[in-house]
Amino acid sequence: MFRIGQGFDVHQLVVGRPLIIGGIEIPHEKGLLGHSDADVLLHTIADACLGAIGEGDIGNHFPDTDDAFKDADSAKLLQHVWQIVKEKGYKLVNADCTIMAQQPKMAPHIQAMQARIAELLETEQENVNVKATTTEKLGFTGRGEGIASQAVVLLQKRNG
Ligand SMILES: Nc1ccn([C@@H]2O[C@H](COP(=O)(O)O)[C@@H](O)[C@H]2O)c(=O)n1
Ligand SMILES: C[C@@]1(CO)OP(=O)(O)OP(=O)(O)OC[C@H]1O
């Protein structure tokens, strides 16, 4: 049996924060604001996984009112979500993601993001695709006020 899930997330870009996307720290004069480390891409993938198995969203599992998740490493949050997916008997078929950011250039970091995400989802790197697009200077992403991300994941029930 197959299950599909999609995720979408947005975080504001501000000075004084590191920019962490896809588990990779990217040199930039601004970073993403959030209760956790605000890794917009890992949040999107976690939401897509939770959506695929009908388990709500990361806000339900890791409330932003809980100090336990203050400055949390989103890789650990995604690992926790992936445990739930595995306990339900699923493995990843593939994940496809898009980052919407006017700046900085994601291209030099895409391979590292794909490798890290594949590691977190216990799959081969070829099963994880990360893309980036500017939004042609339009909207909040185009003005550099924030970064958005979306993802689709396909899961398959393991045999036995
Ligand atoms: N933050 C970004 C945005 C885009 N790219 C890459 O640039 C290419 C052109 O982007 P469009 O806005 O015209 O879609 C595309 O190949 C993106 O991968 C990037 O590296 N970082
Ligand atoms: C990740 C959590 C953890 O407290 O906080 P934020 O970093 O603010 O991120 P968001 O995408 O708003 O998801 C909610 C929370 O689960």
Task: Chart the SSEs and their pairings.
Layout: E1 2-15, E2 19-21, E3 24-26, E4 30-32, H1 40-52, H2 58-61, H3 74-87, E5 90-100, H4 110-120, E6 128-133, H5 139-142, E7 146-157
Helix pairs in contact: 1-3
Bound molecules: the ligand Nc1ccn([C@@H]2O[C@H](COP(=O)(O)O)[C@@H](O)[C@H]2O)c(=O)n1 and 2C-methyl-D-erythritol 2,4-cyclodiphosphate.
The ligand Nc1ccn([C@@H]2O[C@H](COP(=O)(O)O)[C@@H](O)[C@H]2O)c(=O)n1 binds next to strand 6.
Report what the structure shows.
The mean pLDDT is 97. The protein has one domain: 2-C-methyl-D-erythritol 2,4-cyclodiphosphate synthase (60s Ribosomal Protein L30, Chain: A, 2-Layer Sandwich), CATH 3.30.1330.50. By secondary structure, the protein is of the alpha+beta class. Helix 4 (110-120) links the parallel strand 5 and strand 6 (128-133). The strands form two sheets. A five-stranded mixed β-sheet has the order 4-1-7-5-6. 29% of the residues lie in helices and 32% in strands. The protein is built from five helices and seven strands, in the order ββββαααβαβαβ. The chain is globular. The structure holds the ligand Nc1ccn([C@@H]2O[C@H](COP(=O)(O)O)[C@@H](O)[C@H]2O)c(=O)n1 and 2C-methyl-D-erythritol 2,4-cyclodiphosphate.
List keywords for this structure.
160 residues, alpha+beta, 60s Ribosomal Protein L30, Chain: A, 5 helices, binds the ligand Nc1ccn([C@@H]2O[C@H](COP(=O)(O)O)[C@@H](O)[C@H]2O)c(=O)n1, binds 2C-methyl-D-erythritol 2,4-cyclodiphosphate
